[in-house]
Design goal:
The complex is a heterotetramer of chains A (about 160), B (about 375), C (about 170) and D (about 375). With about 160 residues, chain A is α/β, with parallel strands linked by helices. Chain A has three helices and nine strands, in the order αββαββββαβββ. Chain A has one domain: NADH:ubiquinone oxidoreductase Nqo5 subunit (Beta Polymerase, domain 2). The chains are: A alpha/beta (about 160), B mainly alpha (about 375), C mainly alpha (about 170), D alpha+beta (about 375).
Chain lengths: ~160, ~375, ~170, ~375
Amino acid sequence: MEAKEIHEILIQHLPGCVREFRTTTADPFWVVESERIREVAAFLKDHPALQFDMLQAVTGVDRGECFEAVYHLTSLRFGHSVTLKAVLSHEAPSIATISDIYPAANWHERETYDLLGIVFTGHPDLRRILLPDDWEGHPLRKDYVAPESYHGISNAPD
Amino acid sequence: MPGTLTDIINFVIQTALALVGLDYARVPEMLRIGAAMLIACAAMLGYVAVVALFFGWAERRVAGRMQARQGPNIVGPFGLLQLIADAVKILVKEDIIPQTAHRFLFRLAPILVFMGAFAPFVVLPFSETLVVSNLSLGVYYALSFAALEVVGVIMAGWASNNKWSLYGGMRLAAQMMSYEIPMGLAVLTVAVLSGHLNLRTIVLDQQGHWIFSWNIFRGFPWAFLGMFAFYLAGLAGSKRTPFDLPEAESEIVAGYHTEYSGMRFVIFYLSEYATMYVVSALTAVLFLGGWHAPIPRVLAWGGEVHWEAGPVLSALIGMANMIGKSFFLMFVMLWFRWTYPRVRVDQIVYLCMKVLVPLGIICLIGASVWALVL
Amino acid sequence: MSAEVVQAIIFYFLAAMLVVSCAIVVFSYSIVNACFALLFTLLAVAGFYALLGADFLAVTQVVVYVGGILVLLLFGILLTSPLPVILGVATRRTYYLAVAAGAAVFALLVIIVRAFWAGQPAPAEQQSSLEALGTLLLGKYLFPFEFASLTLLAALIGAAYLVRRNDH
Amino acid sequence: MVQSLKTDEILVNMGPQHPSTHGVLRCLLKTDGEWVREVWPYIGYLHRCKEKIAEKVSYIQFMPYTDRLDYLASANNNLGWAMAVERLAAIEVPERAVWLRVLAAELNRIASHLLSYGTFGMEAGAFTPFFYGFRERETIVSIFDQLCGARLTYHYARIGGVMRDLSPETAKAIRRFLDEMDRRWVEYNTLLSDNEIFVRRTANVGIIPADLAIAYGLTGPVLRGSGVAHDIRKAVPYACYPKLDFQVCIGQGLKGTVGDSWDRYWVRMLEIRESVKICRQVLDGLPEGPYQTKVPRILKVPANEAYVRTEAPRGELGFYVISDGTDKPWRCRIRAPSFCNLSILNRIARNCLVADVIMILGSIDVVMGEVDR
């Protein structure tokens, strides 16, 4: 199904959810209201004409003034995909988890939390996944400064 | 009447002493027996070491051949000296005992395991005359010492204070407790057929019509099936693939010898080959006619009837037959190892309890009926 | 050096091994250590049997007690309890009881030995005892032998029953 | 009876140094005797901040870094990255380069599956398959050596084409190898696939039902082993795949249940055969022409974003790249198949034996370089 048709179904069934539908990029994306991400995800998964049954990735992007949580969904049955974005505040980025709707989101959300510090509320096990538990900061943030040393191990480039 | 290995050693000592001008008869009897026993045991120990070294090399060459690679071929002709080079390397290696290990038991365990593996060599006959101790309970004795090995392995597993080691020990305990039963049943099948537990007598019983007087065919089909039960159970007992669960490196790192290094590790290594040899030699003795040649009088003599070949030649031929059979069975073990994957812990117990034990019981009952009817 | 002297040396060696390992079995706080010490107790007993010419009994001792019971014991202990197995420290009362029970058993043994084997030499036959043992077990002692087997079978069934009951 | 025997539960660390955890994966096992009650994978031991590095280096400079993601299939990673950048910058790639990239990717897929075959056999306790698999892999590696001068980290695909043309000798060597592979494939099956012990170790072990596989976002042979015919090469055709004739292999539960470890293994074996087929077609239909288009040395990519999916040997490899008009990406997210596939371990490796955990882990076939990135 083409992106346009998906967009029509979306705005028809979930009015007020989509803030923006951008088609100028190589892959179109939808910016949805961050409070309603669970609603949108559940709808996309269950709608018989859409059936986005597989979550490919959850990603975070540091835009400088705000954070974006990015969701890539695909439907194995119909072969179409969507990219959802939710804009989060830069001070305390937080969004509801979808890991109960898509179990695949579990590790992706942990990774996004680990590297970007986006908090997924309601996540069953929101711990760091790639970095050590006592690591400070979130490296993929644009304002991140790498620590001088970690447990006495120098981090300075030589 | 030819004597045993001890008599031969006594004879050698006597001759040697006579050359120096001493009278062997004046040496106290106990000392003479003790000395002869010690020398015989030392000879066996040497033999175990040679077998282990040779098969350590053969294993790698066979593996190389089967895996489209070379194997050791640089040190010495065909790489034969590789194992000696390795032995030297290992001897100078650091001996590590983990800090939290139980030091005494950690040191004791390899010794126990080796004792268990070595003890059966005392009763293995190489030819009619070449046997250290002609025990009337031969087979029973040989099998009993597997128990010592199990305790040694559990001890190694526990004393290492490593969870993987403990798993290895536990696995071996489960494995051995189940596999001793079919092994015993298979031995009983032979015991019923020949009416003896003495290994020498069992072999003497199997002489005559080429291979058809061997137990494997004489007690057909019971001993034939019994041999597979015995060999498989023995394979499990010597911890070889597909039954190498106690040291399954892909699952539990290295099992009970994870923490061992240097000389202590080598003792485990030696014990494994010693056990393999014992199982192969026992299979040869119990089922494959021991030192009897497959074709009597044509290729080789063996046994009492062919004593005319002379005691030395007869002993040598018998030894060649016996070692040849044992080595072939050991080679089959290597072959298995480089062909098969490993079974799982529940499957090994299943194989024992639901396949080999019933098979052993059928063999035993069948052989008993055979023995009564025929 | 005569045969008697050698036998005596072996006997005292075995006896020392037996006593020391027994002491470890009794006094060790670690149940696994006690188990491993039991191995030497059992081996020493097997040695005694061999010394007395009962080779079948000696080998059976190793097969049954070391190979079966001891391994089962270790298996059970290591698999079912937390790793450092420590026995509960005995109270004063259990010590008294243990000493009393030990003394009673010792007295009983003395009485038995004096009543039955006073002055009799140990059987000196060096031949295999297997045939004689078989004949005795299935001949003269058939009833006690079978009775013992029945008792053990009953105990086995009882144990199985108890385990099942605890389950529910 | 087994369930009623209560034994003490032990926590065991399997890894980070363990013979079967494929590098540096740590699994914490809660075991009850030989039974594993719970498995918690801990990852991150090989984390090299790939995504952060991507923001610091230019698009062209990042190509060698992609080699080290799934280091057993670097040609596939290169392909994914090249396609992502070309999509963002709207670069046309010459047809010959597209075909050559597919050739490299499929050869690399064979190599990767061969290695998986070998290590899987090793985990089952059979050593010989490992050497057999490595023997053929060695041939592929030598071919890559001829093709691009590297044996492991190829960076053969370049932005706008490939690094070097295929010489006739190399083409001949590839054809020889493909014929050899056909024979060896049969030998592999007699040695391992149909071995009774191996079948009993893997059939009905670690079953992943199709719906669970989809819910956890599994891709590649792991998803197809569960009977879902999903392959990016067919679902979202890219490169020259639409012009090639090949099949999507799925698990059918030949030895046990659909979605068990044996099925996942078998899908890989079948894919080796399909890849051989593809390679032959590529060699036959290779179009003439240039193998590289002109790309500025400092490639400034206009503000754009794209999520490009390719089928790597271990599943769907996705590059989500956001460009901002400079020569460096603003954000690059690598959707690594092994990362997603590994996340199901805790779910399926419950209440099985220690040996089963190893087989399940082996059948998922993770590469830690890709999981940790």
